[in-house]
Amino acid sequence: MDLSEYNSNNFMNCHIDSAVPEVCKTEPCVLGVDEAGRGPVLGPMVYGICYCPVSRNEDLKVLGAADSKTLTEAQREKLFQSIHENNDYIGWSIEVISPTFISNCMYKRPKVSLNEVSHNSAITLIRRAMTAGANITQVFVDTVGPPEKYQAKLQEIFPTLDITVSKKADALYPSQGVSSVPGCVVCARVARDSALAAWQFPEGIEGGTWGSGYPGDAITKNFLQRTLDPVFGFPSLVRFSWSTAESILQTKGVPVTWAEEEEADKEKKNTPSVLQFFARQAGGGRMNGSEENGDGGRRGAAAAQRHFFFSDRCLQPLQCL
Amino acid sequence: MSSVVANIDLSSESLKSITSDASHMQYIPCHIEFDGEANLNKYFTPFVQKKLDESHEKCLTSSFRGYPLCGKQMKVPDNFVGVVMKESKSVEPENANVSNGEASDVVEPTIKNLKGVCAFDQFTYWNWDRQPGHADKYQQALDWLELSLEIHGDLPVKTEQ
């Protein structure tokens, strides 16, 4: 798989597609969607689709695509090669979603969740295949989030397609002869492995080893500690929004506060306690908002306040000596 | 809030040349509690991308600690120059009248010693996931420049018709 386009700009997303086999343009096709690299704190997440004519689905099974998650990296490579060699009836398409893109989405205002990123990628991939001429009629998807909601969402976007969303589709369906989902996992995983193996740090650093890339891996944690810059944090290989990364950054990085997060914290502190409304006034009597009692003595003599023109614009007076 | 009094030293020779490269100066939408070197060329500049926004204006995108940034190159207002100040240790105020349990009405001002170290007339302004625009506090703060001229500047000479 040629990932040179992604490798040269690995902080941005990248689509890679096979050509649409001629037979897929005419015959009804079944399409599977799956992903690789959702859980790790390092590297891209890859979404992949794989499709072939419904009539040729058994052939895909023979290739050995079933139960692809237990394969070794070498076995997956070999399997992808077979898929590639059979490009007269098998088509595939992937999106490499960069770690920077994932972090940016989760730190957007408002936040775009990883589930939403996943959904959007799958939807785009299906659309691309159809736009390129593939005659997709059936889709099998492993769920992201609640399966019923996801199925309804996809069915609304693709009303002409027969869509099945379930948990662990690739283990569930081989008996029914649908192996296109395992095929797409192979494509996705091969892409992720390849992208990681070829990773060039735009920061110009030597990363060293990073283990499996999963938050629980000690080698991965060591990589995070080792490559941390106190101001900028981690290199762009890292998903900043992962709690493992966040906590290391908080402990070892210089403190950085973002205005909206600060305001949210301040609001929590400034919200008056309900008990305040039941407190006795300084001059006796209960809080009843009557005119004689004024504002109930909650505030002392108001300090001279600057006009809100200045506070709105974060302007403070400065006297020069 | 206590008032701030500053000693500002703008005598340095380094202020005589004004940096016009906007990529050297970044106005970022967060508060970094740190003074010191930051390797922009390594960790920031490689990720700055040029884009066209919805109204087809040139804008920039980047990322800081995973936070998406939208930016624009800006000039310092006309007839002004930007100065980077370095602060040396400020004198902390002493709070009076603490012994009798009452807060003092008069709070001693904080004294800051600021020295200008470099001058610039262009910089890159960054917002957190929002296009830079007139609603930004920075842009609104510039209103004061015009207003202060009206309030404190010389009266225009009126000529009777």
TrEMBL record, chain A:
InterPro entries documented for this protein: RNase_H2_suA, RNase_HII/HIII, RNase_HII/HIII_dom, RNase_HII_hlx-loop-hlx_cap_dom, RNaseH-like_sf, RNaseH_sf
Lineage, top ranks: Eukaryota, Metazoa, Ecdysozoa, Arthropoda, Crustacea
Cofactor note: Manganese or magnesium. Binds 1 divalent metal ion per monomer in the absence of substrate. May bind a second metal ion after substrate binding.
Keyword annotations of the record: Endonuclease, Hydrolase, Metal-binding, Nuclease
Domain of life: Eukaryota
Entry's family note: Belongs to the RNase HII family. Eukaryotic subfamily.
Names of the cofactor(s): Mn(2+); Mg(2+)
Binding of a divalent metal cation, residues: D34, E35, D142
Function according to Swiss-Prot or TrEMBL: Endonuclease that specifically degrades the RNA of RNA-DNA hybrids.
Protein name: Ribonuclease
GO annotation terms (biological process): DNA replication, removal of RNA primer; mismatch repair
UniProtKB/TrEMBL annotation, chain B:
Signal sequence residues: none
Superkingdom: Eukaryota
Pfam family, one: RNase_H2_suC
Gene Ontology CC entries for this record: ribonuclease H2 complex
Cited Gene3D superfamilies: 2.40.128.680
Single Gene Ontology BP annotation: RNA catabolic process
Protein name from the UniProt record: Ribonuclease H2 subunit C-like
Name of the coding gene: LOC108672737
